[in-house]
Each structure stands twice: as structure tokens, then as C-alpha cells.
Design brief:
This protein is an alpha/beta fold. The protein is 35% helix and 28% strand. It has 2 domains: 206 residues, P-loop containing nucleotide triphosphate hydrolases (Rossmann fold, 3-Layer(aba) Sandwich), CATH 3.40.50.300; 87 residues, Alpha-Beta Plaits.
């Protein structure tokens, strides 16, 4: 049984279509990653699910009810993109205050240890760094032991170590029973956390599958080599993108076997060739570029000249 659902949902802001006929459901017990460039509709989808916006057309349900139903929202936790905490209150006081609104709340001390806040409990929120405030905001999303948690760019402003610490805390909360929807600009984050990924572009769903299947759906590989004439290699039929990075040539190709055959037949001078599958980031870029205007063969040809 789905715990949240979008059925042919469209949301307009004047002439702007932020969400365009989106249909998808969220099943319990999964971590869902929402990917897409700025303006793709990620934050609008989350706001519709929280009852902060209403769809222009279509239907949104949360635990079988309208998201404006306060009873349904008691089972929902969220962290918005912007962090706003009262400067004069201590971290422990904020956790206690928000937790006091829930009958079954996580103890402040337990939550503080889980999210690495135990040494900050007596600190005023106004004295915290941006990354520390972000950790508090994410912890607050879990204070009421919610069944569904919406995290909009949860690790913005965190360094690599802090991000990985927060990922571990999110995984533990998921293992304890929380269903999580997370948006992120860090594709590594979605790859590390999500079991299912939904790729959005221009308000539409471009892909909805496991991370591995989204990557395989794109059907591209990455080839790295050294060459004296990279321009000639970039002109080979299988190449869709070419970059030069630290003296190495990086090619995105539609068929690695065909590319190697073309490379050998061309007689180009090359060495130290390696081939690997696409990462989620490369799959994401390929999907969103394919949905953009002018994404046909001419556009693919232009993308060869990125370097």
C-alpha cells in the first residue's frame, strides 16, 4: 500500500508549469531520491505533499488523506531547503519544544547522539555554524518518529565528513522504520542512500527506477585514455561527449565495444585506455540533456566539443 501518491498532478504558477502531469507513488520502507536540475519541480512536489501548495489539477494523497489533513501530517517529518532556527534558544530547547508536539517522540538525548548534536545541546542556535544548523534541522524532521520524512537538500553546507555522518544517521532511521524522500544536488548522496531514484526535468518524470537500472537505461560508458590528437577521436561516431581533465581525455560513448573498434580502425595514437560504466551523475546528465530542447543529433554533436 502506498503511503503517498501523485495522480496526474500539475501545478502552475501563472504561466510557469512547475509540475506537469506527474503520477507516482511512494511505498513504505524505501529511500527515494529525487534528482533534477534547478526548476525541475522537486521542491514543488514536496510542498504539495506537505499541504503547503495545492495542485492546479490532479490529486495528491498522504496516508490516504488530503495533505491538508492535520491528522495525516502528524505522521510526516520534513526538512526544508532553508534553515530557520530561533537564535536565542538552545539546541536542546528547540528539540524539546518541537518534540513536545508529538505523543510518541524521540528523546532529546537519543536524537542528539544519533545526529552528532550531543556537544551542542547547550549552545544557542544563533551561535551555530551553517552546517551545525543544518544537522539540527534534519534531526528535527525525525523527532516525532514519523513514518514518512521529506528531506530537501539535507546536507547543504556540510563538509564531506559531516555529510557521511548524516547519511549514516538517515540510514539508521530508515532501518528503524522511516520511509524517506530526499532531494539533493549531490548525486553521490543519492547513489549512497537511495534504493529508488526519480529523475525530474521541466516538471516531468524522466525516469523512475532503481539506481542501477537508471544508469543502465542511459546505455553510455566512460572511456579514459591519453592521446596526441583528441579532436580526431572525439569525431568518432560513438562519442557523445569529450572532456580533457588533467592531461587525460574523457569520452562518453554510446557503445564501448563499437568505440574501441572505431578507435583502432582510425589509426589514432592512444595509450592507457580504460573503460567503465556510467555513474549516476553521468546518467542524470544524459537523461536531462535528452529532455531539453535541441537534444537531438545536432545537440549531441555540439556536446562533443565540451573540452
Amino acid at each position: 500500500m502506498t503511503i503517498a501518491e501523485f495522480a496526474h498532478v500539475t501545478r502552475r504558477y501563472g504561466d510557469l508549469v512547475a509540475v506537469d502531469d506527474v503520477s507516482l507513488g511512494i511505498d513504505p520502507g524505501v529511500i527515494v531520491g529525487l534528482l533534477g536540475p534547478n526548476g525541475a519541480g522537486k521542491t514543488t512536489l514536496l510542498s504539495l505533499l506537505q499541504g503547503l501548495r495545492r495542485p492546479t489539477s490532479g490529486r495528491v494523497t498522504l496516508f490516504g488523506a488530503d495533505p491538508s489533513d492535520a491528522h495525516a501530517r502528524r505522521l510526516l517529518g520534513s526538512t526544508p531547503q532553508e534553515t530557520a532556527l530561533p537564535d536565542t534558544l538552545r539546541v536542546g530547547e528547540v528539540l524539546d519544544y518541537v518534540g513536545g508536539h508529538f505523543a510518541d517522540r524521540a528523546p532529546t538525548g537519543e536524537l542528539a547522539v544519533e545526529f552528532g548534536l550531543d556537544e551542542l545541546l547547550r549552545r544557542q542556535c544563533g551561535s551555530l555554524s551553517g552546517g551545525q544548523k543544518r544537522r539540527v534541522a534534519v534531526a528535527l524532521a525525525f523527532v516525532g518518529r514519523p513514518r514518512l520524512v521529506l528531506l530537501d537538500e539535507p546536507t547543504t553546507g556540510l563538509d564531506v565528513d559531516a555529510r557521511r555522518t548524516l547519511w549514516a544517521a538517515i540510514r539508521r532511521q530508515h532501518e528503524a522504520g522511516a520511509t524517506v524522500v530526499v532531494t539533493s544536488h549531490y548525486l553521490e548522496e543519492i547513489e549512497a542512500l537511495a534504493q529508488r531514484v526519480v529523475v525530474l526535468g521541466d516538471g516531468r518524470v524522466l525516469a523512475d527506477d532503481t539506481v542501477a537500472r537508471v544508469i543502465s537505461r542511459v546505455g553510455v560508458s566512460r572511456v579514459e585514455l591519453s592521446a596526441s590528437d583528441s579532436g580526431a577521436i572525439a569525431a568518432l561516431p560513438s562519442v557523445v561527449q569529450h572532456e580533457s581533465i588533467d592531461g587525460r581525455e574523457m569520452f562518453t560513448v554510446t557503445d564501448a565495444d563499437a568505440f574501441v573498434r572505431e578507435l583502432v580502425v582510425s589509426g589514432a595514437d592512444f595509450r592507457a585506455l580504460t573503460v567503465r560504466g556510467a555513474t549516476l551523475e553521468e546518467a542524470f546528465l544524459a537523461l536531462t540533456e535528452a529532455s531539453a530542447p535541441g537534444s537531438g543529433p545536432a545537440a549531441a554533436s555540439r556536446r562533443k566539443d565540451v573540452a
